[in-house]
Design brief:
By secondary structure, the protein is an alpha+beta fold. The protein has helices at about 5-25, 65-80, 135-145, 160-165, 210-215, 250-260, 300-320, 320-335, 360, 400-415, 420-425, 470-480, 505-515, 525-530, and strands at about 35-40, 45, 55-60, 85, 105-110, 115-120, 125-130, 145, 185-190, 200-205, 225-230, 230-235, 235-245, 265-270, 275-280, 290, 300, 340-345, 355, 375-380, 390-400, 430-435, 450-455, 485, 565-570, 575. The chain has an eight-stranded antiparallel sheet. The chain is globular and about 70 Å long.
């Protein structure tokens, strides 16, 4: 074999391994670990998120099983004036929402507050505890002939957690795709004066003025105990994915969400293509028992996951743009060929449309709900194995500004399409979902398009990623030129700098916060920074722009020793990227 052939085989090996990581999927799986770990029973603890992005200390954790125990837990921290944060079963938020601050704080986990409280099928109302997983709520509703109309696509979130961050699906129809729009009541436990036992349950009905503060709150108001949701009769959906040229993408983005109730889009910039999701309700008599078991949310053999990550790192460190684009094309084409995990009967995909009941279509996450198999397989991002490790920038642009934003992104792409092969997740490119305007104080003030960009992250702090300037310029362009709002449960620090000033009713939210928790026990340094109470989320130091902790203003914020310097953006000249 010649040296040229050897080099070619070496460049193709990572491509093959990345494709293999998608194809090898298992039915079993080790569920994600508890995000809270303690060395002495429930004391001397740490908390992380499901990806292992951070590790925060805490003095202790408590796992209430009833509302009475929850009240007692809040009363205990309030009487001692200790900082406290709420943790969910899997802790999916990327920012440090669950970190109480310092080593003396307490964590209250809702993992055992996971039951259905009541169902009123006639009124189509369902009350659940806040720690119930989305997947369990969906199935419990379906058993009563009911549907949660919209939800995020990942079923491993808890109801309390997804409300705290404003998590959503995709729709401009009716009340829209955000779960908090279907909340018609909740019970929240907050600190109280000694004369009231240090904790109180506040019950908020559909017309209570504080409901708009509590249904998206980033966890700074107290602990939600129960949530009542307005549901709909169980219905069916028909799903078809259509791949088209992106030449009219800017025009389509403004109209696609009006044409289809559950519409979304995947932009594959390096291919010049858009995958449009044509997704609508159909009559329940329509034949079909389709299932959404999204490939990216399935279990992977641990060895395959490790090999795929090693291949990704090799492409990052030593690959060429040609090799990276080959890998990107293979992964995107594999997902398309396998219908992204959709099947017509729960087993095989025979063609579009895929028709199925709402509870089988709206969300998935089988890697989180399978029996333990000794870590032979796991979710691809499980922190116990050296597997997938990615950042996620998520922000929303007002729909009225979305066409111009897309034109700017395409201008950036047209300068050198190949850089997008490493700059964004090659499997799904840039994801777009629709969100309707909300009355929630920390919700969207107008109809918007939510953009998700997933991209490679190094395990080594301060290590640059290839073509990082692409995502950084898009992010700064969205946030500063187009006034984008960050997703509360995603993003690096820079996305939250000054964000609170973009919410017209931020002052009303902070007034409720002061009434519910005047001592700021449920607040942290991070939440004070992003809410504009005290300080800034920016961390100015060497390599801070590489980590997304600052926008560079000097070369040392990048990695000049590795050839990364602070420079203006190529399309948005006011951006500063490495």
């Amino acid at each position: 074999m010649s040296q040229g052939q050897a080099r070619r085989m070496g460049s193709l090996l990572p491509v093959a391994l990345l494709g293999l990581g998608i194809l090898l999927q298992l039915a079993g799986c080790s569920p994600p670990p508890d995000p809270v770990v303690c060395t002495h029973g429930t004391s001397n603890c740490t908390i992380t998120n499901t990806y292992g992005f951070f590790l925060c200390p805490a003095a202790n954790v408590t796992y209430p099983r009833t509302e009475q125990e929850l009240v007692a837990a809040v009363a205990a921290v309030a009487s001692a004036k200790r900082k406290v944060k709420v943790a969910t079963k899997h802790s999916h938020s990327i920012p440090k929402l669950a970190c109480p601050g310092g080593r003396d704080g307490t964590i209250i986990s809702t993992a055992r507050l996971n039951r259905t409280v009541r169902v009123d099928a006639e009124k189509r109302l369902m009350t659940v505890e806040s720690g119930m997983l989305l997947r369990d709520l969906i199935e419990a509703a379906a058993a009563e002939g009911l549907s949660l109309p919209h939800s995020p696509y990942w079923s491993g979130l808890t109801i309390g957690g997804l409300l705290a961050t404003g998590a959503h699906g995709s729709s401009l129809w009716g009340k829209g795709g955000a779960v908090h729009e279907y909340v018609v009541g909740l019970r929240i436990v907050t600190p109280a004066p000694a004369g009231r036992g240090f904790a109180v349950v506040r019950e908020l009905g559909a017309h209570h003025p504080d409901l708009d503060a509590t249904k998206v709150s980033i966890g700074v108001l107290g602990v939600i105990s129960q949530v009542t949701l307005a549901l709909q009769p169980l219905f069916k959906r028909s799903v078809t994915f259509v791949k088209r040229d992106d030449s009219d993408f800017a025009d389509q983005v403004a109209t696609w969400g009006r044409l289809h109730e559950f519409a979304d889009m995947l932009w594959l910039p390096q291919q010049g293509k858009v995958v449009y999701r044509q997704d609508d309700r159909v009559d329940v008599s329509t034949p079909g028992d389709g299932l959404n078991d999204m490939l990216l949310f399935r279990a992977n053999p641990t060895r395959a996951t490790i090999a795929a990550r090693a291949a990704e790192e090799l492409l990052q460190e030593n690959g060429t743009d040609t090799a990276r684009c080959a890998a990107a094309r293979l992964q995107a084409d594999t997902l398309e060929r396998l219908a992204y995990g959709f099947t017509n009967d729960g087993v095989s995909f025979t063609g579009y449309p895929v028709v199925g009941y709402q509870n089988r279509i709206q969300a998935s996450g089988t890697c989180a709900d399978s029996p333990e198999d000794g870590l032979r397989s796991a979710c691809g991002w499980d922190p116990r194995i050296p597997g997938s490790f990615n950042d996620n920038s998520g922000f929303s642009v007002a729909l009225s500004k979305a066409p111009a934003f897309i034109v700017d992104m395409q201008r950036l792409r047209d300068l050198n399409p190949a850089v997008f092969c490493a700059g964004v997740d090659p499997r799904i490119g840039v994801a777009f979902r629709y969100i309707k305007a909300s009355s929630a104080y920390l919700g969207k003030a107008e109809d918007s398009i939510a953009i998700d960009i997933i991209y490679y992250r190094s395990h080594a702090d301060g290590m640059p990623r290839v073509h990082a300037d692409v995502v950084d310029e898009i992010e700064q362009m969205a946030l500063h030129k187009y006034g984008a709002l960050p997703h509360w449960g995603k993003n690096r620090n820079i996305a939250f700098d000054g964000a609170i000033s973009k919410y017209p009713k931020a002052h009303e939210f902070l007034m409720v916060k002061d009434r519910y928790d005047p001592d700021g026990l449920f607040s942290s340094e991070w939440s004070d920074q992003v809410l504009g109470v005290n300080g800034s989320p920016n961390i100015m130091k060497e390599h801070c722009a590489i980590e997304g902790n600052c926008v560079c203003s000097e070369d040392s914020h990048c990695a000049p020793e590795q050839g990364y310097f602070c420079r203006p953006g190529k399309v948005y000249a006011k951006a500063r990227v490495c």
